[in-house]
Amino acid sequence: MDTKGIILIGASGHARSCIEVIESAGQYQILGAVGSSQEEVQPESLSGHAVIGVDTDLPFFVKKYQYAFVAIGQIKTPEIRKRIFNQLVELKFEIPSIFSPFSIVSKKALVKHGTITMHHSMINAGAQVGNNCIINSRALIEHDVIVNDHCHISTGAILNGGVEVGEGTFIGSGALIKQGVKIGRNCIVEMGAKVFEDLQDGFKFSNF
Fold it and tell me: Each residue of 165-183: pLDDT tens digit?
């Protein structure tokens, strides 16, 4: 299989997880990591890959690299990931979706640009996942679920059939969303929460 060179924007813990998935899949060769100017730590290397600059260097990197991927995590806010993704689009980088070879994605599901499926996640038939999303390890996206752009569905979360998740929302680890529930934009559903009713935009939900 011919591999394509790609740079990652992000140089922290989530980037290490992305590297694991990309290397497992074998479709892209990681050419370097680009730290975010808003991240606290800028290591010289990341899981054996050089950190070649920061995101303010992207206008120069687009002249050298074709493919790029947002490898910055998302918990409290999606804004850094959104800003970087939109910058990559404006600069005309190609932004692929990344699929773990250990995830299951139905051929009848739709997954858009810049989304990653981590190990042992599952996206079932009829589901739609937008741009620049994280479908984390062991997350379950059931049939006919809609996950809009810039969302993070965290480890072990379960979205049952027909759920809709608004843009920029974070679903915490182990959260359980009842079938047909609609969750608004920029919500935070905390770890282990059980959601049985619709949530309005910007709502922070916890059972504790």
Answer: 999 999 999 999 999 999 9
Enter the pTM of the model.
0.94
CATH H superfamily, domain 97-199: Hexapeptide repeat proteins (2.160.10.10)
The CATH class that applies to domain 4-96 reads alpha beta
Residues 6+ apart with CB under 8 A from 190: 172, 175, 204, 205, 206, 207, 208
